[in-house]
Specification:
With about 350 residues, the chain is mainly beta. The chain is about 5% helix and about 45% strand. The structure holds beta-D-mannopyranose.
Amino acid sequence: MNRVKIIGEPLKSIPWQEKPDHYEGVIWRHDQNPITPRNPTQKTGRIFNSAVVPYNGEFVGVFRADQKHMKAFLHMGWSKDALHWEFSDSEIHWKDEEGNPDDPYYAYDPRIIKIGDTYYIVWCTEFGGGPSLGLGMTKDFVNFTRLENMCLPCNRNGVLFPRKINGKYYMLSRPSDTGHTPFGDIFISESPDLVYWGRHRKVMTRGGSGWWQSVKIGAGSVPIETTEGWLLFYHGVASTCNGFVYSFGAAVLDINEPSRVLFRTRDYLLTPEMDYETTGFVPNVVFPCATLTDSETGRIAIYYGAADTYVAVAYTKIEELMAYIKANSELCPGDRGIVR
Ligand code: BMA
């Protein structure tokens, strides 16, 4: 029998807790959630939707911090165990490629990939009067260089694949408008150099019989390379008489042609249930932006924003999750499925 494997580095120090006895889901929460408090630093009121990576035997993160004037910026964080974090009280300052200051007007929902010795950070940035996707890089998490924005306005939820595929970079994104938006589908674009993007394809559409993802969907954490395809956690939004509810599910995209969806969960994998997910600045939000993975054990730690107020962690294992996704998959009408 072929065992499902994560293709990537081992990470012995990944945060981990075993699944609680009698728990039925395939994703279970860290029992000390949330891992960030309110008012985590003097200047900031809430830290949530954030990205973490292993770095020099410990961990660093680029965190979405809503400061006390309520504008969002990216703040650095450092941790020995990826659960207890120390945050910078001041936002990251960027320089352009000529070395001139180039700070965004606002910045939120970062994702990080590492290619070679360079970390690339994608975030939602102000551009020409609307949200778009900012891109920057760092090698040391001290000096940050801003590169060309990746899209015209308006766009959100930009996620890069962690390696080139057939010689090209790939990005998932969700074209949108300036607000809470009738655009709700995930697109993919490719680039030879992270500057020029094209060959756009719609990959996944909102809707189907899973009503949790009926209003909009957006790529969540950086896709995880596995022997079965790219594993993508993504958020889905439902509309209720009390506002939006953000849950998350997962999809598997073809390894060589990631514009094609192989499997996609009909039901959510995690939906707001705990107090820290249902109560906060924006109630009823779970919003994944990062994972840590250990290729040796198949362990995955998922970092998600809770209620636009906290960072929380959940766990799963690749074999159990992949088996669940395959057994409970339903593509939505309009998804770019596989040609058989
Ligand atoms: C989305 C983004 C996220 C946020 C979510 C719920 O549009 O702005 O940052 O977590 O709304 O408020």
